Amino acid sequence: MTVLNQVDYFDPIIQKIYQEPDESVLMECGRLIHAAVISRRFQTMLLSNPIQSIEDGFCGEKFTFSRQEKQQIKLIF
Question: How far apart are CA 53 and CA 50, in angstroms?
């Protein structure tokens, strides 16, 4: 993983950088959004049936969301 893909935060009191605990979820959300931007068809499917769209994946790529994360995404759409 490159430095550009890392999601970190800085604690100014201790002067230490911590890795975001949910970094993998944020990265998967980014992949999901990119797929929706790239493909109008995927975007339409995602808006109408988010869980099925996530489980089907995009262009042979699968998304790795847990069942709970999928339910939370469904609430957004």
Answer: 5
pLDDT at 5: 46
CA distance 77 to 58: 18
Q: Which of 65, 7, 77, 2 is nearest to 36 (CA)?
A: 77
Token pair recorded at residue 14: 């201790």
What would the pLDDT profile of 14-62 be if each residue is shown by its tens digit?
665 555 657 888 899 999 999 999 999 999 999 999 999 999 999 999 9
Amino acid 24: pLDDT: 84
Buried/exposed 48-75: b ≥16 CB within 10 Å, e otherwise: eebeebbeeebeeeebebeeebeeebee
